[in-house]
Task: inverse folding
């Protein structure tokens, strides 16, 4: 499977190793882009006399846009791994909920000037979803070639 299909296509199946490597690559790119944007925004903002609080709010907004761009390849990776586990691909959306809640809280906090918070029950739900993702998609073997959600497998894992 080529990189374009791996990160931007929702067809096919991938194994555990390709899932972990793909998510690590997306996370690394996300981290590097965020750091570069924050350094650039901070340097530019201070050079033109913008206060740190305003720079922080703008940084949250830009980080959220970068996060939205990173969602697509993550969803594509999860959908292909879900197919390998013979689960419906739409479950990838549930896997992205904890991240969506965190960034929603960050945005609400940035726009209101308060520290972002999430209720305890949501943190527990997010932990349960995260545990399901790690165990079911990251540790368990694929279920084989047959099944309603299975397509040809492209990588062993």
Result:
């Amino acid at each position: 499977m080529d990189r374009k299909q791996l990160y931007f296509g929702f067809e096919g199946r991938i194994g555990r190793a390709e899932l972990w490597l793909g998510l690590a690559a997306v996370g690394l790119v996300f981290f590097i882009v965020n750091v570069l944007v924050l350094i650039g925004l901070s340097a530019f903002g201070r050079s033109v006399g913008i206060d740190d609080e305003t720079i922080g709010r703008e940084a949250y907004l830009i980080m959220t846009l970068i996060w939205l761009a990173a969602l697509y390849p993550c969803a594509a990776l999860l959908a292909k791994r879900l197919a390998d586990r013979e689960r419906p691909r739409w479950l990838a959306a549930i896997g992205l909920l904890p991240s969506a809640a965190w960034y929603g809280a960050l945005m609400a906090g940035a726009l209101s000037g308060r520290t972002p918070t999430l209720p305890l029950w949501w943190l527990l739900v997010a932990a349960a979803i995260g545990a399901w993702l790690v165990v079911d998609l990251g540790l368990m073997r694929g279920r084989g070639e047959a099944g309603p959600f299975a397509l040809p497998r492209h990588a062993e894992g």
Notes: The chain has a mean pLDDT of 83. Residues 7-139 form one domain. The chain has one domain: 7-139.
